[in-house]
Structure prediction request, 317 residues.
Amino acid sequence: MRQLFLGIDGGQSSTTALIGDASGRVLGSGRGGPCNHISGPEARTRFIGAIGGCVEQALLQAAESADRREFSAACVGFSGGPADKQPLIEEMFRIDALRVTTDALIALSGATAGAPGIIVIAGTGSIAFGRNAGGRTARAGGWGFVFGDEGGGFDTARQALRAALRQHEGWGPRTILHDRLLAETGARDANDLLHRFYTPEFPKPRIASMSKLVDEAARDGDEVARKILESEAQALAQFAGAVRGQIFHDGEAALVGYIGGVYRSDIVRERFRMLVEFTDGNRCVAPLLGPAAGALLEAYRAAGIAVELTNVPEIEK
Prediction:
């Protein structure tokens, strides 16, 4: 029986599995539903279905039996806490070397293709995570939308609402964000919008999605919107700097990758890149590989094997 290695990215919206051979060649991939929560019988069933389904797809692509449950090594990364999920993974598969970890680690490993570096994630929230050549890790941010998540989509939308409220009350500069937020939500005025944002009708992801309005306003010449985006980019760059200061020496080379919807904004992305590369040794890069490929690299690492992945599917590039 040939050796197989498994990497899984278990996210809030989908699950991706990659299977590779002992040389690092990717043999198969599979996609499934979300699997980040396991509390409650239905959630447990969905978790098993998502993980099992995407692994079965990957096995079939790899010309293996879909019933195979043995792997030389595996790494599974989750957006939620990993500790409560490890027992379920151990029930589902027989794995000689297993690592169950966070989405930040596999995102980093994928973004730098396993090289030492830092990943700064900015979606609804934000977090930075890094690992040096000696294996030491550090993080910054990721404290949630109430006490942190600077630079994330929710924080960007929050800053836009605050700007609209200041205009509404007459103590802030005029900004087209005011009218565009009202048009987007159907609110009567900024006060009405504020109260709507406190209701279940506007969960965090929906509010975060309005960060695109800030980017559109900035590209249309709104200085308030541009300043918001530049401030968010600076916060994200500071996260990278905080991680670097914990685990890298002055001038030591480090790749700094970025991932998340916030970076669709050219203004945020390019200012982030500029600020990051002010630090000697930093090189800012778009992710070289995706998080499932990062998980697969971590599976080889758990087995003590150094490989360069080949035949990586487009979904992970």
About this structure: The first strand starts at residue 5 and ends at 10. The mean pLDDT is 89. The CA atoms of residues 161 and 194 lie 7 Å apart. Residues 223-247 form the longest helix (25 residues).
